[in-house]
Amino acid sequence: MRRGRPLLALLAALPLAGAAAPPAPPPMARPALWRVADADTTIYLFGTFHALPPGYAWEDATLRQAFGKADRLVIETIVGDPRAMGALLFRLGTPASPPPPLLERVPPGRRAELEALIKRSGLPMKMLDGLETWAAAFLLVQPMMADLGVTGAEGVEETLKAEFAANRRPVGELETVEQQLGYIDGLDEADQRAFLESFIEQTADMRAEFAAMLAAWARGDERAIADTFDKELKESPGLREALLVRRNAVWADTIKARLDDTPGTILVAVGAGHLAGPDSVQEMLARHGVEVTRVQ
Questions:
Q1: Rounded mean pLDDT of 188-209?
Q2: Fewer CB within 10 Å, N or C, the chain?
Q3: pTM here?
Q4: pLDDT per residue as tens digits for the range 69-111
Q5: How much is the pLDDT for 1?
Q6: Which of 177, 152, 13, 175 is nearest to 80 (CA)?
Q7: What pLDDT shows up at residue 232?
Q8: 188, burial (CB in 10 Å: exposed 0-12, middle 13-18, buried 19+)
Q9: For helices 203-218 and 5-12, what crossing angle results, to 10°?
Q10: Is pLDDT larger for residue 14 or for residue 215?
């Protein structure tokens, strides 16, 4: 069973030896954009890619026009002081009793790969052994992103935050960092181990799948994004529930409330996987009787 896919879902929603050339953006990138509105409120829904290759051009005229109209930006979560986030991760991720060594939490055939990844990360094995599985996995994200040639600093959210800050427009969040980590912390051990295994996928496959997902996002291919997420998370229903379904339902409630109570124009930017498929934010808004129109 392949477990390498949930990591890619994170990059569209949260390495591989030897650096490959990052995928080039298409000549005319057109990521998808949706709109909901009533008499005094307009909300744009934009699906993001959390980590991108440096210099990846994705903003077109339609997006720039919509972004320019927005009075405020709302993203999934605002990550503040990295030290505070690290302290929170260790607080949530330290179990009451010592867990088994991290290498023993993956099948024997994957232990050498995990050990190699840990060595490349530079993180002490003893520290990782003392954490819950999900928390240890989170600490291994950075070296894998580096091996894929992507960085959160180049992600869509960071670009948007900078643009809104430059015009002194406020930036808000749909959930706190603690809430976001809490969804993963609540996974049962089997799903946490599937999450960890997702980080030791075959290099060539991971890169090819990442490039395909990024290309689908750039061309606004909602169906391809939904199909990719279905394939990535079908073996881990607990992960799907935690990463997508539960959060999408809460976000749809929040967006409906803002539509009813907050006049003006708002840009809501969340991972593209949250805006595709049968459990998307748009589908959940439709259950509230809210009509969602695709703009691009």
A1: 77
A2: N
A3: 0.86
A4: 999 999 999 887 778 888 999 999 999 999 999 999 999 999 9
A5: 37
A6: 177
A7: 66
A8: exposed
A9: 30
A10: 215
C-alpha to C-alpha distances, 194 to 42, 81, 104, nearest whole angstrom: 39, 29, 13
- DSSP notation for the chain: ----HHHHHHHH----SSPPPPPPPPTT----EEEEE-SSEEEEEEEE-SSB-TT-----HHHHHHHHH-SEEEES-----HHHHHHHHHHHH--SSPPPPGGGGS-GGGHHHHHHHHHHHT--HHHHHTS-HHHHHHHTHHHHHHHHT-BGGGSHHHHHHHHHHHTT--EEESS-HHHHHHHHHTS-HHHHHHHHHGGG--HHHHHHHHHHHHHHHHTT-HHHHHHHHHHHHTT-HHHHIIIIIHHHHHHHHHHHHHHHH--EEEEEEEEGGGGSSTTSHHHHHHHTT---EE--
What sign results for the dihedral spanned by CA atoms 82, 87, 88, 89?
positive
- 289 token code pair: 């009787």
User: What is the amino acid identity at position 171?
Assistant: V
Q: What is the mean pLDDT of residues 165-194?
A: 92
Q: Please name the residue that has the structure tokens 């169906």.
A: 223
